[in-house]
Design brief:
protein-containing complex binding, 207 residues, SecYEG/CpoB_TPR, Serine Threonine Protein Phosphatase 5, Tetratricopeptide repeat, mainly alpha, TPR-like_helical_dom_sf
Length: 207
């Protein structure tokens, strides 16, 4: 048995030597490529983290100094939205849109919200932007566009809020039955008690 073990070990050793002789260069190249890929991945992750921190700092700075009566601060935030293609740019679009709405500049509010939608892949953030955009589009007397925007809202957490806005839009279009149906759907959804009570009050106005 011992002889068998010794012979087996020698065979294995020779096989390993032969393997590295035949494949040594390929293994070396593969190792170099693997290390390069790992280094590149870590560099990319660090780069993304640094960019996110820079975007966060810039967002905080611009939003904290934003003033409706200061055109320069509005332009600075608009420039940030234009150039920062991250969720911080999308968040900034919400802040900037509110400023435009307060100034009754609904066209620019809609434009900046549409831009914000393109800058984030986060479903919840996109839902918030679409809810705001639908309100603005309704105010711009474009109810069909507003309803289409609401159709794109994803996530059960937003169903109730979308239904409330949909009801308001349909009511403004003169579709009382559609509005009532939307609010009934919203009341059944997962939404805060305050919003449910608001929709119930709207429904009660039809009785």
């Amino acid at each position: 048995m011992e002889v068998y073990n010794n012979d087996n070990q020698r065979d294995q050793t020779e096989a390993v030597k032969q393997f590295f002789a035949n494949n040594g260069k390929a293994l070396a190249v593969g190792a170099v490529i693997g290390i390069a890929a790992l280094v590149g991945w870590r560099f990319w992750v660090n780069h993304q983290q640094n960019n996110a921190l820079a975007s966060s700092d810039r967002y905080q700075q611009l939003t904290s100094t934003l003033k409706a009566d200061n055109p320069a601060s509005i332009q600075a935030l608009a420039s940030f939205v234009d150039h920062d293609k991250t969720s911080y740019g999308a968040l900034a679009s919400l802040t900037l849109a509110k400023t435009y709405v307060d100034k009754s500049d609904l066209q620019n509010a809609a434009k900046i919200l549409e831009q914000g939608l393109q800058d984030s892949s986060d479903q919840s953030l996109q839902a918030v932007i679409r809810l705001r955009l639908a309100r603005v589009q309704s105010e711009l007397k474009n109810p069909d566009a507003a309803l289409k925007t609401l159709d794109a809202v994803k996530g059960d957490n937003w169903t109730g809020l979308a239904a409330d806005i949909r009801g308001d839009i349909l009511l403004n279009k003169g579709d009382k039955q559609g509005a009532a149906a939307a609010w009934r759907q919203g009341i059944k959804s997962e939404v805060s008690p305050a919003v449910k009570q608001m929709m119930q009050t709207k429904l009660n106005n039809f009785s």
